[in-house]
Amino acid sequence: MNDEQNTSLAGPGDLALLVGRDRKSFIVRLEPGAKLHTHRGMVSHDDLIGVPWGTRFTSHKGYPFLLLRPSTDDLVRDLKRTTQIIYPKDLGYILMKMRIVTGCRVVEAGTGSGGLTLVLAQAVAPTGRVYSYEVRPEMQRLARRNLDALGVGSVVEFKLRDIGLGFDERNVDALFLDLPTPWDYLTQARQALVGGGFFGSILPTTNQVSRLIGALEEAGFGFIEVEELLLRQYKAVSARLRPMDRMVAHTGYLIFARAVGRQTEHTEE
Ligand SMILES: C[S@@+](CC[C@H](N)C(=O)[O-])C[C@H]1O[C@@H](n2cnc3c(N)ncnc32)[C@H](O)[C@@H]1O
């Protein structure tokens, strides 16, 4: 497998994105002898292994495809899911706002289908750790399968627990809650976070956001921010460049805050 290496050739074990002329795409892990059957004909993995990324090729029916490495956006969109996942536009911003980089220790709840878990795991690897809490066993199983299939499961510790019972970790760098009533778990979140640590949450309605702000203030959090990202996609046709007809107008409100400690005493000379 050479996913981690910066090689210019597609190798056995690599994740590949095959994009058809109609932009319909497939993500496969390249395996010698394997075949992909599409609505546009069959593709043999053997024909792709050892080929430079970015090569055009055709299915056995002569339909043109492009061989590419999948982006994180592609991987998130392709995840098997039974819960609402966080959209890629919000995922990328969460990493930046919460300073989630290589080596960080991060807690999240709930795991859901593992969309955020994937992005956190990629960001903190190889030396960091993601502690992912989920109350429903079937969701944890799905997320574990998703993460293992993408080769980042080893960075994640999956925990089956109602977070009302608290987190095991202390002094973590960042903690993210993606569940309907985050205000119920702020004492537990504050105990897990290092002083000044990053708290984040995503909520679909403004009344939930109001409630969370009030609870954050009471629970010892400061520097509270509420933000919303709107993403407009365009039809990338040079002769008639214009926005797509449809747009996802709302995903969720992002709430960020910092764990704040006691005020330091002023020392008299
Ligand atoms: C919207 S999903 C999370 C989606 C996930 N962030 C993703 O990107 O795929 C919310 C999850 O939180 C879980 N959950 C709700 N309350 C919980 C609690 N008290 N403790 C742990 N997990 C909880 C639910 O079972 C559900 O799977």
Q: Output the strand order for the largest sheet.
A: 9-8-7-10-11-15-12
Helix content: 10-25%
- Spatial extent as radius of gyration: 22 Å
**CATH class group of the largest domain:** Alpha Beta
Distance between the termini: 64 Å
How does this structure look, described?
The protein has 269 residues and is α/β, with parallel strands linked by helices. The protein folds into 2 domains: 15-70, Vcp-like ATPase, Chain A, domain 2, CATH 3.10.330.20; 73-259, Rossmann fold, CATH 3.40.50.150. The chain is built from 6 helices and 15 strands. It has helices at 72-78, 88-97, 115-124, 137-149, 186-192, 206-218, and strands spanning 15-20, 25-29, 35-38, 41-44, 56-58, 64-68, 105-109, 129-134, 156-160, 172-177, 193-203, 221-227, 234-235, 242-243, 253-259. The strands form 4 sheets. Strands 9-8-7-10-11-15-12 form a 7-stranded mixed β-sheet, with helices on both faces. A 4-stranded antiparallel β-sheet has the order 2-1-6-5, with helices on one face. Strands 3-4 form a two-stranded antiparallel ribbon. A hairpin with a 6-residue loop joins strand 13 and strand 14. The protein is elongated. The protein starts with 14 loop residues before the first strand and ends in a 10-residue tail after the last strand. The structure holds S-adenosylmethionine (SAM). S-adenosylmethionine is lined by residues 83-86, 109-110, 112-116, 133-136, 139, 162-164, 178-179.
